[in-house]
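User: quick one - fold this with iron/sulfur cluster bound?
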Amino acid sequence: MSAGVEPSRTRHPLPPVRWPGAEEAARARWFSPARVGPLPVADRTWVPAMVPWRATEDGFVTDEVLDWYARFAAGQPGVLVVEATGVRDVPSGPLLRIGDDRFVPGLRRLVETVRTRSGGRTRLFIQVLDFLVVKRRPEPARFFGRFLDVDAALRHRLADATGDPGWDEAPEAAVRARLLDAHGRDRALVDRVLTPVQREALDYGYRERVTDTHLPWIRDLPRVLPGLFAGAARRARDAGFDGVELHYAHAYTLASFLSRLNTRDDGYGGPRPQRARLPLEVLRAVRERVGHDWVVGIRFLGDDVVEGGSRVDDAAWFGVRFAEAGVDYLSVSKGGRFEDARQPKVGEAVYPYTGVSGHECMPTVVSDARGPFGRNVPLAAAIRQAVRAAGHETPVVTSGGIASFDQAEAILARGEADFVAAARQSLADPDWFRKVRLGLGHLVRRCQFTNYCEGLDQRHKQVTCKLWDRVALDEPGVRLASDGRRRLNAPPWAPDASA
Ligand SMILES: Cc1cc2nc3c(=O)[nH]c(=O)nc-3n(C[C@H](O)[C@H](O)[C@H](O)COP(=O)(O)O)c2cc1C
Ligand code: SF4
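Assistant: Sure. Structure tokens for the protein plus iron/sulfur cluster:
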């Protein structure tokens, strides 16, 4: 499939699964110990970052956040990665933040909760990120009435497009009114008068890019980001996490620096070494701040899956550079970019997990001929191969449509990855790793890969799973979502009760 092209899709059934007995599981690669840099890890199971929309509006840890991670910890994965957490001290809705020391006590409680609930088995990393401004798609009346910048150039384009030179001198209010009127009746005129950036702001909502170097704060990103990430990593260490994951994937700032679409001409865009420059400077600053005896990992894209974006050969090259620079693990994701996202409704923000690149990031059963299961593994395999060929032992983590023991074992046996991660399967059944390890795989609640959870994320609603969020709502102490109709966490499970 070429990037950005919508393939024809069919609905795939969930494949049959075979679960191992406890003895086979005990011998399995997936449940064998490993290391991540300096850190021993009990086994090679992994829950990657998932945003649950449970923090306060100010970005603090809440009891709901603690419950969410406690629930995953009860399943005792080898590694659990806390959701994307903002490195800046700026408002970001109910997403976690780590841009100031006042966030540390809450994060410390989160660490203690996971230690206790996993019996000390699960290693805990926190994903840290920076993101640029994305505004909601505006009402046309507000866009033309307020947001649109009416300057001499725009007046001139209107004069040209209408053949009426009077618009060069017309009052601003008249220009705005004329364009709003044209929006309803003569869209072609609007398209001729607005610049591509203005058209995007009207149709999708205004969005900053790393290439907007005319904006001082975008030009300054290489100056400010290393310090912001280093500060965030130091706080994560102070809070007691086992490591930090630098979020260089999906639609966020550092992924956009790595992308082939990054054409900055200030030494931080263009050829690969220049695109990797800021991500490497951030990694170095983090390392200097936290030392070498604590885990620093990177999540990045094996393929942007957008027209003109980076492909796996870029990713393999980046992986080798990160390994040379001393990163402790590489977690490979795919797609999830803004460039091909679906047009949002008026009042909503563009969501990077919608278009083709979004499907590649969180594939569903409605997929092309290859289906959703393990479809991103070849990217991790190619990156791992390049890293090994360059003489580095850096572990590689793969994820994307992985939901069975045999799948995970085969990936490890073929040397395609060193850790096998599952996000949605772990949401569907947070106990699934433990069930499989205990030989109770037949009790696993299998993810349906239809993305109800992702739909909630898209609408910034508390994320739950359709397989359990209406179950036993009257159970004592059950915590409900703000809509009052869903439980926030999977029902508890204990081996003795159900074996
Ligand atoms: C609700 C939800 C939230 C997510 N949030 C993040 C995130 O904060 N950071 C990240 O790197 N990936 C995030 N992801 C992507 C997952 O980590 C994972 O890469 C993706 O779901 C594919 O893996 P899976 O098939 O095992 O679910 C999220 C996925 C879901 C479903
Ligand atoms: S909501 Fe659907 S896709 Fe999401 S975890 Fe549950 S079963 Fe899987």
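One thing worth noting: Residues 307 and 368 are 18 Å apart (CA to CA).
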